[in-house]
Amino acid sequence: MHTNSVTNEFNSSEKKYFDLRNIAWAIFVIASSLIAWNQYGSLMDYYEDTILAGATIGLIWLGMKWRSFQPAAIAVALLSLLAIYTYQMHGDHITANEQAFFLKYLVSSQSAIMWMNALFVLATITYFFALYQKSDFTGKVATSMVWTAAVFGLVGMMVRWRESYIINTDYGHIPVSSLYEVFILFVVITALIYLYYEQKYKTRTLGGFVMLVVSAAVGFILWYTFDKGANVIQPLVPALKSWWMKIHVPANFIGYGSFSIAAMVGLAYLISSKLAQKNPENGFVKRMPSLELMDDLMYKSISLGFAFFTIATVLGAMWAAEAWGGYWSWDPKETWALIVWLNYAAWLHIRMSKGWRGTPMAWWALIGLLVTTFAFLGVNMFLSGLHSYGEL
């Protein structure tokens, strides 16, 4: 499908909320949620029932707003069900992947996550190759790889969720609870947000830059898996056995993913701007989006990230009050979360009040990623506190 036709579908989907396809999508999501509740409702409390209802509404809205998400979500559902059904056929035993071919090599949590890792790295290379060759077809291949990687990542998380209960009911938890799991969440969320912007802005030339940060995270996942055995499902510490985990962490990582996209678009902006100053007819500059488009994308990404990071910070404070008896304790993780929040609040304030654009804001977005990375990972490596659940 040509990029323009994809974009036309994207734009038209914003206006056709209640056509037959979207009605079918809403029915699919509602039916899937009811099946999940019927199957696992006995393990859920009132708050988790509310989260499921909210997630159902959110998925319906997202699919109607962004139709390309619909087939990906259906693929995730079908592959996850295949894995869960296969486990049930083998007596719900975690070693079933030794007997079941598709489970062992495709849809067990570890297999799906490894496919995700490989496809993200290949997509990074393919995006840059498409940029170098000026090949629309190669760009489409790269986009398909990212979509497929995101599907495998989500399947891996869904199946890991089930596997945690198969190992031991007391181990059961949503797979956003360890450093290994949240890195997977990070790469999937970053990829999906990027794919949305790719379709909205009608360009694939920024894909390689955004996938650089995703591939860096993949490198960490692989190191953490093979050197530390972090993929092994472990029981949670008591403080993490909370329904707050299901809303606080995803909101946080929508923020992290958006900030990462803004930083990598900022890197592309700085390279394009520098080359354009030397030679406006430079081939790389002519292939890249306009500086105005990249500046606008930085702004939109940081705005989205800031909104969700703010929500996550408020939810985290409420969770802390319930778990530890106080909304704020100046724990290192909390302190650095505040630094990240202030950094992007200042970025947005300067842009909106002073009208700053272009190079200084691109540098700020890029440096902001270093601050965010330390808050996300560095605190776990070098500092300790109440949030020390993911040490290396």
Instruction: Pick out the low-confidence regions.
Output: 1-7
Q: What helical percentage do the residues reach?
A: over 70%
Secondary-structure-derived class: mainly alpha
Count of DSSP helices?
A: 14
**Succession of helices and strands:** HHHHHHHHHHHHHH
Question: What distance lies between the first and last C-alpha atoms, to the nearest angstrom?
Answer: 44 Å
Beta content comes to under 5%
- How would you describe the oligomerization state of the chains in this entry? single chain
How is the biggest beta sheet arranged?
Answer: none
Outline: globular
Query: What value does the average pLDDT take?
Result: 89
**Strand tally, please?**
0
Please compute the radius of gyration using only Cα atoms.
21 Å
What does this structure look like?
The protein is mainly α and 392 residues long. It has 14 helices and no strands. Helix 6 packs antiparallel against helix 9, helix 7 (136-167) runs antiparallel to helix 8 (179-201) and helix 8 runs antiparallel to helix 9.
